[in-house]
Amino acid sequence: MTLVEINFDGIVGPSHNYAGLSLGNIASASHKGNTSYPRAAALQGIAKMRSNMALGLAQGFLLPLPRPNGDLIRGLAIDEDTPRQLLAAAWSASSMWTANAATVSPAPDTADGRCHLTPANLVTMPHRAQEWQDTQAQLAVAFGDERHFTVHDAVLPAFGDEGAANHMRFCESHDAPGVEVFVWGKQGGKFPARQHEQASRAIARLHGLDPAKCVFIEQNPEAIEAGAFHNDVVSVANERVLFTHERAFADQQGAYDAIRAAFPALEVVEVPESAVSLEEAIRTYLFNAQLLTLPGGEMALVVPSECQESASVWAWCEHMLAGNGPIRQVIPVDVRQSMANGGGPACLRLRVVADPEAVDQRFMLDEAKADRIEAVIAEMWPETIDPAQIGSDALAKQVVEAREALLAVLSLGELA
Ligand code: SUG
User: Fold this and answer.
1) Can you give the CATH number for the domain in which 190 is found?
2) Which one of 94, 124, 291, 337 would you pick to mutate in the ligand 1 pocket, going by the greatest count of ligand atoms within 8 A of its CB?
3) Which of 162, 180, 239, 280 is catalytic?
4) From residue 58, how far is each of 21, 53, 78, 142 by CA, in Å?
């Protein structure tokens, strides 16, 4: 068995649109009402996956969920008089951000030696709260081999859980036992804190983690106020490295000390406020990056191309590369359509450390399959969606048929 990190990217669904549904997500609010480009969005996502595969990394994907969601429309009896935001919720393509699909504890960390996955309940936002059962159904297929994986139910809706976006794992190498860090937020600020401490603690118990190898850290309320609605907007981890803004945590030094107590080899790469302000970090999504170990052992940071256009962020990246820190490459990628809804490269992927052979092969990507997926997107995905079109029967038909065509080409009709 070879355990490697596999990134499962969400394929951007054909209903991708800008409805401004996420309070506290500044990009989502500021692009509300804009025309979206679902075809371009999905192709940008495939290009990112191809670029990571070209680095020699294992790549998987998850499918868009069924939209418009008839169950939600019927369940809330949505009609012409219902606020447009609720109708738009039933059309949201938000499952593309698979960092919110689940929390994943790889086999070396768990008591029973299986990889555990808990779908996120995403209860804070109605358009996201509808995701988890369909996500779970998909995870149960992709990770259906019960010798290797356990897929749980989401934690009780009393405690908000947003999945891997608020979870980091430190280890000497991906296949070695790790220390899992859960970041939660305290309610009471102007924006919702989406991750509840008790949801994180429940997941750690359900996954059978060793309490001595778990760390629970409070997010900085100022970061949430500035638009870091998930911790992965202000920090990212890989192996021994924590790449973080200096204002990410409520008690920054205390957070480093707590992680170091459980994982002494911790290496912190901290970006100070004086080099990149919290606001600029959130605007450019510098930390919503994929911090990857390349096959040669070197680490690369896959950042949104917005980072290259920011004088302070790019100067900091160049300064970092000129030094001798652990991150040796910075690779910009264009995921602008997703970025405009607050989703960068890291939001678009769920990391699963597993033997690729143990995964249902229909969810693993190679170049030939990427060609087939691209062909369906190019033919079937709407070129544009104006928010006024949400609710139209013609658009609904196109969105449903586009997803069906994708399932057909991937032989995944059972998820229809
Ligand atoms: O939950 N945006 C998502 C972005 C999720 C980003 N994920 C991570 N940080 N891991 C959210 O706020 C926008 C939907 C809209 O406005 O239509 C949205 O749901």
Assistant:
1) 3.75.10.20
2) 94
3) 162
4) 33, 6, 42, 15
207 catalytic? Reply is no
**347 carries an active-site annotation:** yes
- Residue length of the chain: 416
Q: Of 21, 46, 48, whose CA–CA distance to 131 is shortest?
A: 21
Q: Is the dihedral of CA 14, 101, 232, 365 positive or negative?
A: negative
Provide, rounded to the nearest whole percent, the portion of the chain with pLDDT above 90: 100
Q: How far apart are CA 289 and CA 332, in angstroms?
A: 9
What is residue 7's three-state secondary structure?
strand
Establish whether 162 is a catalytic residue.
yes
Q: How confident is the model at residue 1 (pLDDT cuts 50, 70, 90)?
A: confident
Whether 65 has a pLDDT exceeding 80, the answer reads yes
Count of beta carbons in the 10 Å neighbourhood of residue 381: 28
Asked if 170 and 376 count as a contact pair (C-beta separation under 8 A), the reply is no
Give the Å distances, CA to CA, from 391 to 15, 251, 322, 385.
Answer: 11, 46, 52, 11
**In total, how many domains does the chain have?**
1
- Domain of residue 135 covers 4-415
The C-alpha angle 220, 222, 226, rounded to 5 degrees, equals 120
pLDDT at 71 > cutoff 80? yes
